[in-house]
Amino acid sequence: MKIVDAKVVVTSPGRNFVTLQLTTDEGITGLGDATLNGRELSVVSYLQDHVVPLLLGTDAHRIEDTWQSLYRGAYWRRGPVTMAAIAAVDVALWDIKAKVAGLPLYQLLGGASRDRVRTYGHANGASIPELFDSVRALLEQGYQSIRIQTGVPGLKAVYGVHASGAHAANPTRLDQRVLPAVEDWDTGAYLRHIPSVFEAVRNEFGPDLPLLHDAHHRLTPIQAARLGRSLEPYDLFWLEDCTPAENQDGLRLVREHTTTPLAIGEVFNTVFDYQTLVGEQLIDYVRSAVTHFGGVSPLRKLFDYAAQHQIKSAIHGPEDISPVGMAAAIHLDLAIHNFGIQEYSGHTDLTNEVFRHAYTFSDGHLHPGEAPGIGVELDAELAAAHPYQQAYLPTNRLQDGTVHDW
Ligand code: KDG
Ligand code: MG
Q1: DSSP calls for 208-221
Q2: Where is the signal peptide (predicted)?
């Protein structure tokens, strides 16, 4: 069965998504997500200009061989652009293979290891009362585990919080250009404030609700150690991305000082980013996305490696992972043994129309559905009606103007 067509579709039903659609000579199509938030068009070019010409005419059944030839054959290895492009090919080929088999993808990955996939949702509020309202809204939607992000006194706009009114960090426009929003940051103010937020949430919602928090790469190891320790009384499910973890060695210091569980990896794209973290069991959850890690094939291998160290999965699943990437994640979540939790904040109705999917959400859990393949259909006409919009992720500056990690 040969690949005879490969299209890269860019659509923006509210935010940009990049999708690869492969078609075989038997008329079977497969979809893969290649969305790299804020740098989308680089992956479009990588696929269109460099990968598609290599795929046409190749055997659609040879998933591992195709993966290895794209990874090794480029000579220039790793990196988010390369690995997002390879991920799209890998997932599209798994989609095709599962459709040929007439089975949902999770069956080809060993079958279900559980009945449903537990998720966490995102609560946020500039103030504590706003945060409580957001937690209540998620509980009403059925979520049973909740990530907590809040504003910090003195800061105008903070990661994960939809700042409102005059304080909103909106992208600016200059001539024809859209420029990134600039948020502000003060690590001392953050470290002083966050424990009181979790104390308030525990007092309001009790001891049982699993709570998570994302520090979004902003702390040094010693600051992260202090935060982890100060949050211990509030029994977090995890503290995420406490440092910019490309410095893997730094996590030794964090780990020595706190028993708060640690989750890392959404910006990682190969197993090599995890060697110290997993090999020395310095973290508790690996967070890579199918979309940014080269697809289902390598992520499955990472989870098997992590399992040897009692580390669980927690696939990255914000709104900038398209329903195609999300579907692939849910199949993997259902199949692997060392599943931990799945991040899920859903998509807009329009996005769900562009990408009609078989996966369902209820009672805070996902199920991939029983449609053959990954279970996502792309509405090409609707996708074309929503063309690419130039957009950037925000950036971050300290109060004296120094650039800081966002
Ligand atoms: O594009 C960037 C987002 O994917 C990231 O900021 C989301 O940190 C994130 C999370 O945990 O979902
Ligand atoms: Mg995160």
Answers
A1: -S-EEEE-TT---H
A2: none
Ligand 1 atom with the shortest distance to the CA of 343? 12
User: Which of 147, 287, 320, 322 most suits a substitution to test ligand 1, by most atoms within 8 Å of the C-beta?
Assistant: 320
* Residues 229, 139, 264, 219, Cα dihedral to 10°: -50
Tell me if 379 is assigned to some domain. no
Residues 143 and 115 in one domain: yes
Residue 174 domain-assigned (yes or no): yes
Print the domain residue range for 68: 3-104
- Is 216 catalytic? The answer is yes
Residue 125 neighbours by CB distance under 10 Å = 20
Tell me the two tokens of residue 278: 């997993």
Tell me how far apart the alpha carbons of residues 225 and 174 are, in angstroms, rounded to a whole number.
Answer: 41
Shared domain for 9 and 130, answered yes or no, is no
284 CB within 6 A, ligand 1: no
Overall pTM > 0.90: yes
- Asked if 326 and 361 sit in the same domain, the reply is yes
Does residue 216 contact residue 193 with C-beta atoms inside 8 Å? no
Phi and psi torsions of 279, nearest 5°: -60, -35
Same domain for 273 and 256: yes
* 123 inside domain: yes
For residues 149 and 23, state if they share a domain.
no
Do 99 and 116 fall within a single domain?
no
Residues 220 and 244 in one domain: yes
Q: Are 340 and 314 in contact (CB under 8 A)?
A: yes
Does residue 382 fall inside a structural domain? no
| pLDDT tens digit at each of 406 positions of the chain | 999 999 999 999 999 999 999 999 999 999 999 999 999 999 999 999 999 999 999 999 999 999 999 999 999 999 999 999 999 999 999 999 999 999 999 999 999 999 999 999 999 999 999 999 999 999 999 999 999 999 999 998 889 896 543 344 566 776 778 899 999 999 999 999 999 999 999 999 999 999 999 999 999 999 999 999 999 999 999 999 999 989 999 999 999 999 999 999 999 999 999 999 999 999 999 999 999 999 999 999 999 999 999 999 999 999 999 999 999 999 999 999 999 999 999 999 999 999 999 999 999 999 999 999 999 999 999 999 999 999 999 999 999 999 999 9
Report DSSP state, residue 234.
G
214 C-beta closer than 6 A to ligand 1: yes
